[in-house]
UniProtKB/TrEMBL annotation:
This is AMP-binding protein. It holds the Pfam family AMP-binding. It comes from the Bacteria. InterPro entries: AMP-bd_C (IPR025110), AMP-bd_C_sf (IPR045851), AMP-binding_CS (IPR020845), AMP-dep_synth/lig_dom (IPR000873), ANL_N_sf (IPR042099), ATP-dep_AMP-bd_enzyme (IPR050237). Residues 9-383 form the AMP-dependent synthetase/ligase domain. Residues 444-509 form the AMP-binding enzyme C-terminal domain. Transmembrane segments: none annotated. It comes from Raoultibacter massiliensis.
Length: 523
């Protein structure tokens, strides 16, 4: 296989009448999905989309997200997937840098963007995604909402198109999707992932995550993030993909029970919400075989609690958009050893990983340094940013920017992001270590993030932003004393801000702009 769409063609040939996707009240067999993809490819070709051309997608989760990727793959084009949680100005700014002239978007996102689209500076063809068979009100709105704009309804586009079944003659190294980084360290960057990188990812995850044709995979996390690769692995294995349009715990639990979901990917704050709901309502979700988690650190207390409540296997993946997801895995077998639960596991088979010091020399075991990885799943580069691409890819090694420690057995423990380093009184401190220490205080701590702020005496100092359990009497003094005792006086936060909740993005990370506002409050 060379083209990503080959996996759909193979599964449609092997399992034509089997349910491939579900979204809301609709289900699609593999034959249905292939037909819709072929029709969409024909429609895009008629509208001028060619090999290496770009198409933009701006929508929350929907089955169309998967269809558009495969249709682009059939044409050899690139599907750009935009984070709908970015501001309208940010999205339009990114769109302005792109060459995409066809934009798929939900009506809700059109409402958000409509006053800014003219600033893109080129004509756009909008294809609105909310119209569905049997919902004439939504269909009419999808056609009429963009008065004066070249807009079409997605379902009408498919119905009127001639199918295009032949895949373009692509190179395996051609990009097929572009995902944006989360933007926690600045303006999001477009990450180009090739056919060969995604096919390698599918091969790895099929084996290392034990996918089978009888799996039912629930996609809760946004499909505009790198977790979308699980959808492709599901299709490649002839398994069933259920696409969630809600991440509320009651909805997630209902979908698991209704469709017999066997595996789901969650970030820790969603995992906590699901565990709380299951415990509070004393319900069983017995079909689950595997929960894959990652995206942010998880407390040992939460993980242990979830293992007891949800009674299935757990697998942690540590990776990034640039590597098409996981580069290390903490497997279900690893989860049986309490000593390993603070690690992110060992390098994925077929990849190479090392920890290096500032000179690039490999660190001995138990010494912290930057994590580097060499993998077939690596991005082709950042979109229109060769300088930054060269900064992070050196001699085939991707420099993650994460600080980690490898032990003698090859288990990796993450310390923090390289650029999160706080130097206080001449001492190096990584906020993630301090945050984990605060989380270890137990159930009283619901959520926490630790940041560095300027200090007239120490240059920088630490501040903790903490969400306490309702009714908790944990004080600032308690937190400071706990960290001083466990980590040492120079690692204790000198300020603690209690808040009702922390803002987190779709991948579970606390956005940089939100942290900047917090810093202003603390200074």
């Amino acid at each position: 296989m060379i083209n990503l769409v080959d996996i759909l063609d193979a599964s449609a040939n092997a399992h034509p009448d089997k349910v491939a996707m579900r979204f809301k009240d609709r289900s699609f067999t593999f034959s249905d999905v292939k037909d819709r993809v072929d029709r969409l490819a024909g429609a895009l070709a008629d509208r001028g989309t060619e090999r290496r051309g770009h198409v933009a997608v701006i929508t929350p989760n929907t089955s169309a997200c998967i269809e558009i990727v495969f249709a682009c793959a059939r044409l050899g084009a690139v599907c750009e997937q935009y984070n709908t949680r970015l501001s309208a100005l940010s999205i339009v700014g990114l769109l302005r840098r792109s060459d995409a002239r066809i934009v798929f978007l939900s009506c809700a996102m059109y409402d958000v963007l409509k006053d800014h689209l003219e600033s893109v500076g080129r004509p756009l063809t909008l294809i609105l995604l909310d119209g569905v068979a049997g919902d004439e009100a939504a269909r009419a709105r999808a056609v009429a909402i963009a008065d004066g704009v070249d807009a079409f309804d997605y379902e009408n586009v498919l119905a009127e198109a001639e199918p295009l079944e032949a895949a373009a003659d692509v190179s395996a190294s051609d990009a097929v999707i572009m995902l944006y980084t989360s933007g926690t360290t600045g303006m999001p960057r477009g990450v180009l992932l090739s056919h060969e990188a995604l096919l390698a990812r599918i091969e790895i995850d099929t084996k290392e995550m034990w996918f089978t044709p009888d799996d039912v995979s629930l996609s809760v996390l946004p499909l505009f993030h790198v977790t979308c690769v699980t959808a492709f692995v599901t299709v490649a294995n002839g398994a069933e993909l259920v696409i969630a349009d809600s991440h509320k715990p009651e909805d997630v639990a209902a979908m698991i029970r209704t469709y017999g979901v066997t595996r789901v990917g969650l970030v820790p704050f969603l995992l906590r919400a699901l565990a709380d709901y299951v415990e509070r309502n004393d319900i069983g979700i017995d079909t689950l075989r595997l929960i894959v988690y990652g995206g942010e650190p998880i407390s040992l207390d939460l993980l242990t609690r979830c293992q007891k409540l949800l009674k299935c296997d757990f697998l942690q993946g540590y990776g990034m958009t640039e590597t098409a997801s996981a580069i290390t895995m903490l497997t279900p077998e690893h989860h049986k050893n309490p000593r390993l639960l603070s690690t992110v596991g060992t390098v994925v088979p077929g990849m190479e990983l090392k920890v290096v010091d500032r000179t690039g020399k490999t660190c001995p075991p138990e010494i912290a340094g930057e994590v580097l990885v060499k993998t077939r799943t690596l991005m082709s580069g950042y979109y229109r940013d060769p300088e930054r691409t060269d900064d992070v890819i050196r001699d085939g090694w991707y420099c993650t920017g994460d600080i980690g420690i490898l032990d003698e057995e090859g288990f990796l423990t993450l310390v923090d992001r390289k650029n999160n380093l706080v130097i206080t009184g001449g001492e190096n401190v990584y906020p993630l270590e301090v945050g984990r220490c605060i989380e270890a205080m137990g159930d009283d701590i619901v959520d926490v993030v630790v940041i560095g702020i300027p200090d007239a005496v120490w240059g920088e100092t630490l501040a903790a932003v903490v969400v306490r359990k309702e009714g908790s009497d944990v004080t600032e003094a308690d937190i400071v004393a706990h960290c001083a005792h466990r980590l040492g006086g120079y690692k204790k936060p000198r300020k603690v801000l209690f808040v009702d909740s922390l803002v987190r993005n779709a991948s579970g990370k606390v956005p940089k702009d939100y942290l900047e506002k917090i810093k202003e409050q603390l200074m």
